[in-house]
Description:
The protein is α/β, with parallel strands linked by helices. Helices cover 36% and strands 25% of the residues. The protein has a 7-stranded mixed sheet, with helices on both faces. A 6-stranded mixed sheet has the order 7-2-1-11-18-17, with helices on both faces. Strands 8-9-10 form a 3-stranded antiparallel sheet. Strand 4 and strand 5 form a beta hairpin. It is globular, with a radius of gyration of 21 Å. The site of flavin-adenine dinucleotide has 32 residues, from helix 1, strand 2, strand 3 and helix 10. Flavin-adenine dinucleotide (FAD) binds next to helix 1, strand 2, strand 3 and helix 10.
Amino acid sequence: MPATTARNPFHGTVLISGASIAGPALAYWLHRFGFDVTVVERADAVRSGGYPIDVRGTAIDVVERMGLLSQLKAAHIDSRKLTFVDAAGATIGVIRPEALTGGVSGRDIELPRGALTSLLHELTRDTAIHYRFNDSIDVLEDDGAGINVRFKGGAQGRFDIVVGADGLHSKTRALAFGPEQQFNRYLGRCFNLFSLPNYAGLSHEGVTYAEPGRMAGVYAVGDSDTLHGFLTFAADEPPFLSHPDIDAQRRRTAKVFAGDGWEVPRLVEAMLRSDDLYFDTVSQIHMPRWSAGRVVLVGDAAYAPSFLSGQGSSLALVGAYVLAGELATHAVPTEAFASYERIIRPFIEANQALATRGGGLLLPRTPEELDARNRAFTAARSSGEAELRGETSRLVHSSLQLPDYAGGAVNP
Ligand SMILES: Cc1cc2nc3c(=O)[nH]c(=O)nc-3n(C[C@H](O)[C@H](O)[C@H](O)COP(=O)(O)OP(=O)(O)OC[C@H]3O[C@@H](n4cnc5c(N)ncnc54)[C@H](O)[C@@H]3O)c2cc1C
C-alpha cells in the first residue's frame, strides 16, 4: 500500500450482513481503515465450490491492492472455448470465451465462486473481524445516532452502521427499504444450475444448444469430472420472486425442454435428480438510492447486474473498496454513503447495461434472434476470429479509475 495521507475521525462499529464476496471484501478494507467489524452470515460456513465467476477490469486493481492477485491467478480456470451446437450435436460455431465476455486474456481471471469466497475469508478470519455464522439480522432500529439490531439467534447489539451485502434477495434491503418487487428488474428469463458427471470428458470448455426462448448447456471447469449443467428459458412473467416451490419448478423446466435435441434429455434428467439445484430468475436490482439513514447496501443487494453481464463479482469487489474508502475519509457516514454512490453509480449502470445488450446472443428469444446469432457464429468461424461483443464490454469493465484511500489505512 502507498503511504498514509489522511485519517478519518470516525472509526465506528460496522455490522455487515453476508459473507460471500462483497461482505468479506468490505470487512477487509474497513478493518484496514480501523473500523470495528462484525460479519453475520446465514449459512453455517463460507460456501465453497459453485459456478465459475469472473474478476475483470477495475476489480483486478482491487484484488491487487488486497494482495490477492497471485492467489487468484493460481485459481484461474483458463476456459479455452465455447462451442455452439444444433439439435443433432453438429457444431454451429466455436469462440474464445473472451470474444463474448470481453475478458482480457492474461489479465482477467475466471475462478470458481467458492475459491474467491474462501480466499476472502482466509484473508480476514485471523484478524479482529468477528464472523457470526448461522445467524442473521431479524430486526433493525435506526434511531439516527446508531442502529439497534436483534439477531435471529436471540442476541442483540448496537452498531454505528449496518451494511447489507446479502445478495439479490437481500433481507437487509427488505428491512430498510421495503419489499424486493420495487427494485427487482426481471430480465424475462429463468435459469436452473446443477451438477452432473462429466459424461463427455470435456475439459476447459463449454458447450451450448439453443432453441428460441430456451438454452441448455454444460461447462467444464478445468479437467473436473463434474460438469456445471444449465437450463435457461424465457418466461414473460417471473414464476416467483424469492421463495420457489422447487419441485414445481423442476416439473416446469422439464416441460419447457420436453422434446428438445442434443443432450437435453440427459440434462433434464440430471436437473430432476440434482441435490444441488439452484433455480432463480435472471434479474437485476435497480434502486434510486443505496442507503437509508445508517443502513447502506453493497454488491448484488444494491445493484445486481445479473449473470448475463458476468460482472456481479467485479461490481461487488469495486463497490466494497469504494464504500470502505469513503467511510474512511468522511466523518459523517451519510456523507460517505452519498460520495460512494456518486463515485461508482455511472460505472455500475454501464456494467448493468451490458446484460441487456448481449441477451440475444446468450439466450435468443425468437427464431429471428436465433438465426442472427447463428449467422454471427458462422461468420466468426469463417473469419477464424470473433469479436461478438467483447470490445464494448472490455471498455466498460475498466471504466472506473479507483480512488486511492491508502492514507486511511491503520492496520496492515
Ligand atoms: C448462475 C450464476 C452465474 C454467475 N456468473 C457470474 C460470472 O460469470 N461473473 C460474475 O462476476 N458474476 C457472476 N454471477 C454473479 C455473482 O455470483 C454475484 O454477482 C456475486 O456473487 C455477488 O456477490 P455478493 O457478495 O454481493 O452477493 P452473494 O454472492 O449473493 O452473497 C450473499 C451472501 O449473503 C448471505 N445471506 C443471504 N441472506 C442473508 C441473511 N438474511 N442474513 C445473513 N446472510 C445472508 C448468503 O448466504 C451469501 O453468503 C453469477 C451468478 C449466478 C447465480
